[in-house]
Amino acid sequence: MEHTLYLGSYTKKASKGVHQITLNTETQQLVDYKLIAEVDTPTYLTFSDDKKTMYTISKEENGGGLTAFDLDENGDYVKRAATTSEDSAPCYISYDQKRGLLFTANYHGGFVTVYKEQEDGRIVQTDRKHHQGSSVHENQASPHVHYTDYAPGSQTLLVCDLGTDTIVSYDVSDAGELSERATYTAKAGSGPRHLVFHPNNKTVYLVCELSNEIEILTYDEATASFTYVDRVATIPDTHTSFNSGAAIRVSNDGKFVYFSNRGHDSIAVFAVSEDGQSLELLEIVPTEGKTPRDFNFSPDELYVIVGHQDSDNLTLFKRDQESGRLTLLDKETYAAECVCVTF
Q1: Neighbours of 35 (CB within 10 A)
Q2: Which of 73, 192, 317, 340 is the 20 to 30 Å CA partner of 133?
Q3: Alpha carbon of 15 to those of 8, 34, 90, 154: distances in Å?
Q4: Where are the domains of the chain?
Q5: What pLDDT, in 10s, does the model give residues 247-279?
Q6: What is the 3-state secondary structure (H, E, C) of 67-86?
Q7: Residue of 92, 94, 99 whose CA lies nearest to 117
Q8: Alpha-carbon distance 228 to 192, whole Å?
Q9: CA 98 to chain centre
Q10: Which parts of the chain are coiled coil (predicted)?
Q11: Residues 193, 245 contacting (CB under 8 angstroms)
Q12: Which CATH class is domain 46-233?
């Protein structure tokens, strides 16, 4: 069987945009690496449900924003529309296909932006919320919005702000306008980066980039608010040099959580309690590359693929679905400046 991966990247060195690569599960290899969309700084990607449209973070000479590519009859992604309404390139993008809305998180500017697709294919800005504040870490002198996506099965937008140690919940109107509902404040200096929901849709695992921890939270859909439960470390006490938390994934069965460490260059694997509210560290596995900013499961969750920002390689692991543990298969596959891995 073959699975297609899409790789977002920086374009500071060899990469020229979004790449595609194939996971062959019979040979257990990653093959046929190729450029599919030339665009500057596509560090995060998302797709329409039918995969016929790809939306990427992008950068232009006069600013940043997003670009939409449509799949043509030849199977190529062709640029359809772009917007550069942000002074710098954002770092995250998500898509509401039902309402034609797109959301970006801008780390440098400290704001979340909403865009709406028009009938003629253009993409226009409909709202923007600038966050205010700071926190105790040297990297928290100002707001740094890093994630913006819906809570499962809802139209409540959850926004992680690394600079202010907060998750802000917004209602989103059909016209693409935001109204704030609630704010959760994490531990001072923790740096909320990304979050994922347990399959029960009540327990949340929050990436704390600066403190190298996962905060475990519960989510109340009625009030769009979070309650603190616990936190766990993602690196060993013996690691005292630089580390920065990056990506997090939870298996579909809810039994395991995976977390990537940049600096320690590893993936921490946790077993999850039945209610989702407790994590037990199983192993910390070297990723065999430098700066594992993102990773993902294959669709069948039998494999884990890790992208490395600073060593230009992909690492392929076999994943044991019963134990959750990872076994190294390959670490030599080339992928330039990879910072986003999606299927």
Answers
A1: 15
A2: 340
A3: 10, 10, 18, 36
A4: 46-233
A5: 999 999 999 999 999 999 999 999 999 999 999
A6: EEEEECCCCCEEEEEEEEEE
A7: 99
A8: 13
A9: 21
A10: none
A11: yes
A12: mainly beta
